[in-house]
Amino acid sequence: ILKGGIPEDLDVMINVGDADTSYSGGEYWNNEELLVLVRRWVDEGHGFIGIGEPTAYRKNGGTFALADVFGVDKERGFTLGTDRYNAKAAEDHFIMQDAVLPIDYGKGTSDIYALDGTQILDIVFPENAPRLLNSGEIKCAVNDFGKGRAVYFAGLPYSVQNARLLHRALFWVAGKESEFYRAYSSHIDTECSYYPKKKTYAIVNNGTKNCKTDLYNIAGFSRRITVKAGEIKWIKDR
Which of 9, 146, 149, 162 has the lowest tally of Cβ within 10 angstroms? Predict the structure, then answer.
């Protein structure tokens, strides 16, 4: 990125991994030039998705170098005396419309808290603690940054639900929710791919049961179809 810049046709970046690993970037996030470049890119209207400990570089009492972009950070014991009143999940959001709680975040990432102004989508409270300020851990949150957007997940191991969560997150963070219901299959066990040269849809049922799903074509019109368990159904556009 520092050598060639961020490609002009890129809408969304994803940074995922544990702190101090090559996956999340490690010491590269101590480079102010890189931080300025990514902040400016998001601010101009692009999207950034972070999973686990994105942009992690422990400095100045914080953990995420771009905590202001994601709207969350990880508590390391330096700000335990700070009251945090942002601890209530939103009742409805585009990303969570197919979600069934509890969501599987895998081993997840602990001690994540939301900054003021961040919209929380999922927060978990310890069973032995009252649901008061400072006791919840953020599992999913979204944040506006300038003209751009960011999404944070504490973890996202593969499952059909998590695949749909990421699918929705990609569209939301890119500001393209209006295009989501195009070449789309509604049942959470299914996925849809569109091949424009052949004007053909491939609908895959990843589940173990037959299902009925609403197939939305590239123009946004839908029809109900049945897809058998494990089947790839090929359908020509009308």
Answer: 9
